[in-house]
Amino acid sequence: MAQLWGGRFTKETEKSVYDFNASIRFDKALIDQDIEGSVAHVVMLEKQGVLTLEEKDAIVKGLTSIRNEVSEGKLVITDEYEDIHSFVEAKLIEMIGDAGKKMHTGRSRNDQVALDMRMYVREHVAVTADNVADLLFTLNDIMEKNTDTYMPGFTHLQKAQPTTLSHHMGAYFEMFKRDYTRLTDAYERMNYCPLGAGAFAGTTYPLDRNYTSSMLGFEGPTLNSMDSVSDRDYCIEALSALSMIMMHLSRFSEEIIIWNSNEYRFVEIDDGYSTGSSIMPQKKNPDIAELVRGKTGRVYGALVSLLTTMKGLPLAYNKDMQEDKEVTFDALKTVNDCLGLFNGMLRTIRFNKDIMQRSAVRGFTNATDAADYLVLKGVPFRDAHGIIGRIVVHCIENDRSIDDLSIDELKNFSEYFETDVYDAISLKTCVEKRLTLGAPGPEAIKEELKRNKEFLDKIKRGDMKNE
User: Fold this and answer.
1) Do the bridges between strand 158-164 and strand 150-155 make them parallel or antiparallel, or are there none, so unpaired?
2) Which of 29, 61, 327, 420 has a CA that sits 20 to 30 A from residue 99's CA?
3) What is the pTM of this model?
4) Which residues are catalytic?
C-alpha cells in the first residue's frame, strides 16, 4: 500500500527494509491512545477554524467507528500497514473519503507517537500504582494481625535478634510505599502534552496546544518542541521505578522461598499459588515467588536497553526511539502481572507462628538482651559479651537454648545471674522494651500502623499527588 511519506519516492521500499522499519506489530497496542489523541486534535482544529464543523464531525465519527470495530473484532489490524498511525488514517479515508485526509493537518508522526506513548505510559503507571496500593493494604493487614507474632530477625541470614512478623512486614511496607510515591511522582512529571510540536519545530497552523492538553487530561503542553518529540525520560523514569518495584518483590520472594523450605517452615503457601513435581509427590513448590524473582532481570533489561538506546542520540527525533515501545510495554505488563500474583499469594499465605517463635528462641536471638542484663547488673559490656558467647557455645554443644538453662547452670558462667533473668530475656520482654521510633516494640508499632493508616487513607481518596 502507499505510504504516508511516499510522494518523495520513485520506487517501492525493499520488503526486508519495510519489515525492519515497520512497528505495527507492537505499536498496535497504542490504538486507543492514537484515536483519542486524533479526536482531540481535530476538535481543536475545528475550534481554530482550520477544519469545518462538518469535517470535524465526520472525522470524529469515523475514528469512533474504527475504535469500536477493532474492539469488537470486526476490524483487524494487519501488518500491511507500517504503523498504527497509518492504519488509522488509511481506514478513516476509506470510511469518510477526502475529509479523512485532513485529520493530520498541523501534526507530525513525531509528536503523534510522542503523545500516544505518553498517554499509554501514564495510564499504565497509574494501574501499577493501584496494584502497589493493593499490596500495601495487604501488608498493613498482616501487620495489624501480627504485632505479637514473634520471630527471629536476621543479619547475614543468621538469626540475630527477636522481632515480630508485624515489624518484618513493616519493612516491606516502607519499600512499597516509596515505590508508590515514585510512581506518582513520575506520573506528575510525564503528564505534559507534546501534541502540536510537529516534527520538531512546531507548525504554522494556529494550534491551541493548551486546549488539546486540557482535553487529554494533561497538566499543560510541553514547552520546547524539539524536546517534545525527542524526550523519552518519562519512559526511563517509569522503567526505573518499575525496576525498583521488582527489586523489592524479588527480595520479598527470596524470603518467602526460604521461609517455605522444609528447614524453616515459617509459611505455608496456599495450594492455589503453588505447584507440585512431576516425579516427587511430596513437593509443594513456591513457583510464583520464583518466577517473580526471575522476571526481575527482564525488567532490569528493559531499563538498561532504553538507557543504552537514548545515550547517544542527537536532537531531535531519531528512528532509534522506536525501540522504546516493546521494552516498555513488556515491563509494564510484567510488573503488573507480578504485583497481582504476588499479592494474591501473600493474602492467602499461612504463617506458622509457633514455628517462628521456636526458631527465635532456639536461634539465641535473645543473646544481646542477656548481655544487656549482665551490664545492668554491673558487668562491663565486653565481659558480658564474652560470658554470653560462652553460654551460647555450651547451649549449641548440648542442643539447648539460653532459656532452658537453670539458674545454677547460668551462675556457673557468672554469679551476677538471678532468677529475674528469665523475664529479662523472654521474647516478649526483648521485643517490648524496644520502643525507639521504627522499632518492633508495641508502642513503636502502634505509631507505625497509625502512619500507615494515614498514608493508605490518602490512597483511598484517589490522590495521585506525591506527598
Assistant:
1) antiparallel
2) 29
3) 0.91
4) 156, 277
